[in-house]
Specification:
The protein is α+β, with helices and mostly antiparallel strands. It has 2 domains: 228 residues, 3-Layer(aba) Sandwich (Rossmann fold); 113 residues, no CATH class. The protein is built from 11 helices and 17 strands. Strands 12-1-13-14-17 form a 5-stranded parallel beta sheet, with helices on both faces. The radius of gyration is 23 Å and the shape is globular.
Length: 420
């Protein structure tokens, strides 16, 4: 190639790089791009199949990958981990006189109140209670149990475009430095940040199922935010942070659904300890469910990386225990997940390894553990779930009927532990 052509090529490349520097937002990162890819890939939530018939496959010669050696994980199979839920089980005796609260944190598998709504139904059937509990003021992901409409000064607005929101599990631009995200890990701020005059908000939250009925509202917000309620409508005025609304009963079990799309679960240590402690104590939180791990699988093929993520999740468990010393903890591991290997859909190699590491971590931390992977049937079970309409074509997410099946199994497993 002649020198002037080389110079021209270099000039074009540098121009493109310079343009990208000014176009791409400064808060974007590789981690954020991965999260956006996950959001696009996630069935939202899948009721239709996404065809892959039109994807072109280009044959190429790739160097042979180094064989991955997965370490053995020693587990004590003689201990039923529900033994570590005894404090929660004992607290259920109080449900006739006061609220016993359960928080279910998780990734996109629990969006729409899927899985959680079945656990809630099982517990409320046995121990009373009504309502779906916590919801964000700006509910950007539709729910199967609550229909929410938001009005700004009497005008209907989209939840994602109405208020300034901060999320502990969001991109850098949506995070804050003081850790004050509230117990849901997200907060909406009533001020002029996006729309002038946004200090007057009306939220209409209508239960969609009989089990979602309630007999009292609660709001968690700064003292500068004033509020009142009428039927299914909450009226908020002022300027300040709103950490969540709650429709619930005065006694019984309240189970809150707190999905964190794209999250690995390594965010709790970024949340203010005093704020969490106050909520957990005052709202009588007696069980905290953490359902994470699946988002690590598609991007990590090395056992060392998975082990490091599990170590990070252990730190989150320890932090939650410090914030909620009166609450029991249940960790739910990832489901089976599929990837294409040599043209065939197979379980990601790191799924069973992470499942064992999480179980070992739970044993050592004296918390309960439910293995979705084993309950589904282990290796290749997601493919069987797909064949009978329980899971989506992405090989990762349950369909709604599959989520209902999983939620019922977890609820039954919890209740069976009481009799032991």
């Amino acid at each position: 190639m002649r020198p002037y052509k080389v110079l021209l090529f270099i000039s074009v490349v540098m121009t493109i790089i310079g343009a990208l520097y000014w176009i791409v937002p400064e808060d974007w990162s590789f981690e954020h791009l991965i999260q956006e890819w996950q959001i696009a890939k996630a069935d939202s939530i899948p009721e239709t199949e996404i065809s892959t018939d039109t994807i072109e496959v280009i044959d190429s010669v790739e160097p042979e990958k180094e064989k991955i050696i997965i370490p053995e994980v020693a587990l004590d199979s003689t201990v039923d981990s529900r033994y570590y839920l005894q404090a929660f089980y004992q607290s259920l005796a109080e449900s006739g006189e006061r609220v016993v609260r359960v928080l279910h944190y998780g990734d996109s598998q629990i969006e729409e109140d899927r899985i959680t709504m079945e656990i809630r139904g099982k517990l409320q059937e046995q121990y009373g209670g009504n309502g779906v509990g916590l919801m964000p003021l700006a509910q950007t992901i539709p729910s199967l149990t609550i229909k929410q409409h938001l009005y700004l000064n009497g005008r209907f607005v989209s939840p994602s475009n109405s208020l300034r929101r901060y999320m502990v599990y969001g991109p850098k631009a949506m995070q804050r430095n003081d850790g004050l995200y509230g117990v849901m890990g997200q907060v909406a701020v009533m001020n002029d940040s996006l729309v002038r005059g946004s200090e007057t908000i009306t939220a209409v939250c209508t239960p969609l199922l009989p089990a979602a009925r309630y007999n009292r509202w609660k709001i968690f917000a700064d003292s500068s935010v004033h509020y009142s309620f009428s039927g299914d409508t909450a009226f908020l005025e002022g300027r300040g942070a709103v950490y969540g609304l709650s429709q619930e009963s005065k006694t019984g079990v309240i189970v809150d659904n707190i999905p964190m799309r794209g999250c690995l679960g390594l965010v709790f240590t970024k949340m203010d300890k005093e704020q969490l402690n106050t909520f957990y104590r005052e709202q009588n939180v007696r069980l905290i469910i953490m359902q994470f791990g699946g988002n690590a699988i598609p991007f990590n093929e090395k056992p060392g990386t998975i082990a490091a993520i599990v170590k990070g999740l252990r730190e989150q468990v320890q932090y939650i225990r410090e914030c909620a010393p009166n609450a029991s903890i249940l960790f739910i591991g990832p489901s089976d997940m599929l990837t294409q290997t040599d043209g065939e859909w197979q379980t990601y190699p790191m799924v069973p390894y992470m499942d064992k590491l999480l179980y070992k971590m739970a044993q050592e931390e004296h918390i309960a553990y439910f293995s979705l992977f084993k309950w589904m049937g282990g290796n290749g079970s997601m493919k069987r779930w797909q064949e009978v309409g329980l899971a989506g074509s992405d090989g990762v997410h349950f369909h709604r009927v599959g989520a209902r099946k999983a939620g019922n199994a977890i609820g039954d497993w919890l209740l069976e532990g009481i009799a032991q």
